[in-house]
Amino acid sequence: MNWLCSADFETRQGKTKMNIGIIGAGVMGEVITSSLLKKNVVAASQIMIADALPEKPAALAKTYGIRHAADNREVTAFADIVIFSVKPQNSRAMMEPLSGAFHEGQVIVSIMAGVSLGTIERLTGHKELVRAMPNIPAKIGEGMTVWIASPSVPDCSKMIVKMIFQAFGLETEVTNEDLIDAATAISGSGPAYIFYVAENLMKSALELGFDNREAHRLVQQTFRGAMDLWHHTGEEPETLRRSVTSKGGTTAAALKTFGERKTPESFSAAIHAAYVRAGQLREIADGKPDPAADLEKQS
To answer: Which residues, 6+ apart, have CB-to-CB distance to 6 below 8 Å?
Structure first.
C-alpha cells in the first residue's frame, strides 16, 4: 500500500504527516532541510538525515532540531520519502548497501547529477523513483528544479514530491530523462556561469578605476536590473540586447569584440561539456572508470 496516497495522509497546522529522510548532509541537504521547515511542509521531528561523516548530520540536528541517524538504513526505515543528496562519484557506494531496504509506497528522490533512474533501480532494487536537478539559488527559495518520475510513481506521490521542490523555488516536470542531463548543464550549473560573467565584469570594473565596493554595487545592480527587466517585460533576451545596442556605440563595440573572440561558440562548447560530463557521471555510477581522472593523470 502507498501510504502517501492513503486517506491517512493529511495535514495538520499546515504540515503533512509524512516523514522525510535525507542521505547526504552537504549544502543541498541543508538547503532542503531549512526550506521544508521554513515553508512548514513538515515538522523538525519528521526529518531524519545521515551522512558518511557523522559530524555533519549531528551539526544539522543541533541547528534545526531534526533527527540524525547513525547509518543510512535507519533513514530508509524512518522515511516515506528518501532524498539522495550525495556526490554522484559516491553514489554507488551509498546505494549498494541499501539494496532491499525500501518497501512499496516509499519514494526515492535523487538529486545526484548524472545518475540515471535505471542505475538507481538496479542498485537499490526499488522502482518508485524521482530524479531531479535543483540549483543553488534554492538556498534563498529561488531555485529551479527539473525532475522526472519513473512510471511506478503514482500521481498522488508526485504531488507530494512537487510540494517538496516548491519549498525552495520553481519546478518543472519532464517526461524525457535526457532532459535532466540537459537541465544539469543549463539550470543546474547555470548560476556558476552567471557568477563567472559577474566575476570578470568585476575585474574589468576594478581595472577601469572603481574600488571594490563600487564595483560590487555596479555589477550586482546591473545583473539584478537586467534580470528584473527581462522578467517584467517577458521579451526575448535578443530583443532586449538589441534595445541596448546603438549602431556605432559602446555596447556595439563590446559585442563586436565578443563575436571576434568567438564567445558564442565558446559558450556553446562549455554547455555541451557540462552535458557530456553528466553522461560520464552516469557511467561512473554504473561502475565504469572516470575519464576525467584519466585525463588528469596524463596531464
So the answer is: none
Residue 7 has pLDDT above 50, yes or no: no
Q: Domain 190-281's class?
A: mainly alpha
pLDDT for the residue 284: 87
CA 99 – CA 125 distance, rounded (Å):
6
Q: How high is the pLDDT of residue 147?
A: 98
DSSP letter assigned to residue 172: E
Binned at pLDDT 50, 70 and 90, residue 2 comes out as low
pLDDT in tens, 85-112: 999 999 999 999 999 999 999 999 999 9
Going by their DSSP bridges, the two strands 67-68 and 47-50 should be labelled as parallel
C-alpha 71/C-alpha 33 separation (Å) is: 18
Phi/psi for 152 (5° steps) reads -80, -10
Distance between CA 269 and CA 163 in Å, rounded?
Answer: 35
Counted residue by residue, the chain has a size of 299
Distance between CA atoms of residues 146 and 110, nearest Å: 12
Between helices 250-260 and 263-285, what is the axis angle to 10°?
50
**Residue 147 and residue 124 in contact, taking contact as beta carbons nearer than 8 Å:** no
Separation between Cα atoms, residue 102 and residue 127, nearest integer Å: 9
Domain formed by 3-176, architecture: 3-Layer(aba) Sandwich (3.40)
Question: 12 pLDDT band (50/70/90 cuts)?
Answer: very low
Rounded CA-CA distance 79/83 in Å is: 9
Alpha helices in the chain (DSSP H): 27-38, 55-64, 72-78, 91-95, 117-124, 155-166, 178-183, 190-207, 212-233, 237-244, 250-260, 263-285, 291-298
Q: Which sequence spans correspond to the domains of the chain?
A: 3-176, 190-281
Q: What are the backbone angles phi and psi of residue 187, rounded to the nearest 5°?
A: -90, -30
